[in-house]
Amino acid sequence: MKRLQRVIIVVATLFPLLLGACGPTPAATETAPTAKPLTQAATPVTAWQEDWERTLAAARQEGKVAVFTQYPGEWRVAFAQEMSKRYGITLEAVVGVGTELSARVMREQANKVHYASVLYGGNRDFAKTYQPAGLLQSLEKVLILPEVTDPKVWWRGQLAWLDADTKTYLNYRESVSAHLLINTDLVKPEELKSWRDLLAPKWKTRILLDDPTVSGGGQGQMSMLAHSIMDWDYVQRLAEQQPAITRDRRMMVEWISRGRYPVGIGIQKTTATEFIDAGAPISFHIPSEGAYLGVGSGFITLLKTSPHPNAAKVFINFFLSKEGQALSSRLTGFQSSRTDVLADHILPVLRREPGRKYISELDIDPDVTDKTRDRVVEIFRPLVR
Q1: Domain 178-290+370-383 maps to which CATH number in 3.30.1380.10, 3.30.200.20, 3.40.640.10, 3.40.190.10?
Q2: How far out from the chain centre does Cα 132 lie?
Q3: What is the rounded average pLDDT of the residues 318-341?
Q4: Backbone phi and psi for residue 278, each to the nearest 5 degrees, phi listed first
């Protein structure tokens, strides 16, 4: 009997629990655990992302952008493919000599024909043409991507504006000047440790010089020698060595490769590199006084009258991005001012080295540069035939 009573007590105790387990599920209480969502909340869209998306949508509606550049077909084809593939935008590139392109821009602006949007590859001299005419717009608000506006990725620790006040001209490359090109069968590097070694009698009439009386490598080199590396006395004495002067930059490299001239000054880097890669007995050489950074045709700017302003913004941001600068550097042979772009395709002698001090054309006042170039022209004009 006692055993039966114990069984009845146990059953009576467990019955409500068993009944609850078999019955409907009670409503959740405040202490019940909250189920985890299937997806995490979306990351808030930042201001630059909204701006970029709006710009992309408008750019696709515009459909194309016209870029005036000095760089040839290979550059045009590569960037046209990237703009089409990435953004669905057609790149129309007009390729020509800088002075011809600037004359066309001024002519079209005078006639209110607005075709060009971006001017890519112009040098400092073109600022004197476009800026006084009020043709350029500030690029500061055009730069949208954080990887473009981040100062830490640029060589100077900041964007390199030619005009710090209006910010219409942006430099994207500062590359080591080629300085000398020597025929390695005829000249040993130790023979030209210093620039002053070129004043020895053995080099008289044996130096080939890119024409310093016009814009280019020869004029830039002579100007930097006079202003920053050597002095005016040196430049005058170098002229007295009666260098041969030419404007045919490809022929310069051919003549040095063949030994017609053992030394060249102001040589075009891309052409010389092409010959070096092909096995020509030539090499770049930097004398002991050091190197300088040339900016050359390394500027980009945007016309106020751009017929496709949003497509122009997209192009400029892509061009200045890491991928855009890597592509441009490989195609042109010039080192980007972005420090995150590899330079392994550039000859070691022509790469910037971290921690080394360089003289840059950007650090020289344009008015001083003008006066220096005028005097260079005056010194070498009698030698031009």
Answers
A1: 3.40.190.10
A2: 25
A3: 95
A4: -85, -5
